[in-house]
Amino acid sequence: MNAIQCKMARAALGWGTRDLARNARVSPDTIARLERGEQLKCSTITAIRAAFENAGIEFIPANGGGPGVRLAKSR
């Protein structure tokens, strides 16, 4: 997950940085650092990604068009 994917996923969910921080159990400053492109610990990225995935976000790999996100289909 990169900074752009983080911003896109937040927008898709209608979440602010505080919403994401609360769901990922990290500080809002950590989210701001990620979105500025700073390096974070792998465990922190994993927690943020898990929060997004639990909320229904799917991460799309770079497949010629660049990495992205989408809302998962309802099961």
UniProtKB/TrEMBL annotation:
The record's SUPFAM superfamilies line, in alphabetical order, gives: lambda repressor-like DNA-binding domains
Spell out the protein name for this chain.
Answer: Multiprotein-bridging factor 1 family protein
